[in-house]
Amino acid sequence: MKQAMITLSFFAMLFSSGCDNTSTSSLNEKVKPAEQPSKPVPVQVPNWVGHYKAFIPCAACEKQLVSLRLHQDKTYTLKEASLFKQKMKQKESSGTFVFDEKNSNLLQLIDDKTKQNRYFSLHDHSIEPLDQNKNQFKDFEQYQIPQVQNIEVNNALKYVDIQADLFKSEKVESNGIKSTKLTYFFEINNHSDRALKLRDSDIVLIDAKNNEHVSTFENNPISPIKANKTQHELISFIYPESYQAAYINIK
Hints:
Elements: H1 2-30, E1 50-56, E2 63-70, E3 75-83, E4 88-99, E5 106-111, E6 117-123, E7 126-130, E8 145-150, E9 153-155, E10 160-174, E11 177-190, E12 203-207, E13 212-214, E14 216-217, E15 229-240, E16 245-250
Parallel strand pairs: 9-16
Antiparallel strand pairs: 1-2, 1-8, 2-3, 3-4, 4-5, 5-6, 6-7, 7-8, 8-10, 10-11, 11-15, 12-13, 12-16, 14-15
Protein name: Copper resistance protein NlpE N-terminal domain-containing protein
Organism: Acinetobacter terrestris
Pfam family, one: NlpE
């Protein structure tokens, strides 16, 4: 009798243990660890997105300034300034653009207002205008428009707006020291009623160590900027290669 009771007790314990395991297993199945939020995938910006700016030849004027911005959503803004001896004629347009199906380096710009098409050839860090037949212009080397980069301009002049875009970066040697030469494309808007005279010592590049580097005008000296006029100039700075440009200061 005692042996029968022991046997029954053993099976009761075994059954109870099995129920506990089943219950624990079911609980584990129901309670799942919280899912970790997925990390956002970084959006890669295409290399062609940016600002392109330069002077190109002009048949009806002295020279033409082209400023083209290509945006990631495939829209654009185009500013063109035709420079004459006594005046400057400006126009601005915007719209969308598409890549040619057969040639991914060929852009077709479509003006939102006029629906007219313009064609450009896309290169590494530059863009080139084409004629209406999608062909290069004669002396096409002069039609290369580089991609430029902005730099902060600390301007102390009243009634004057100044914007500087990096036009070219070169490795040079200055006084036996390996150096960097940065050439900026300056747009100087004189909103005052007087002509503005600028000297090379008025414009300095400040590096990350707060050293000043005096500018060099490509057209030296530059002519006075007339009242209520805009003038464009190429201005360069040379500084040791180990330094880093921070901003431009206008005194």
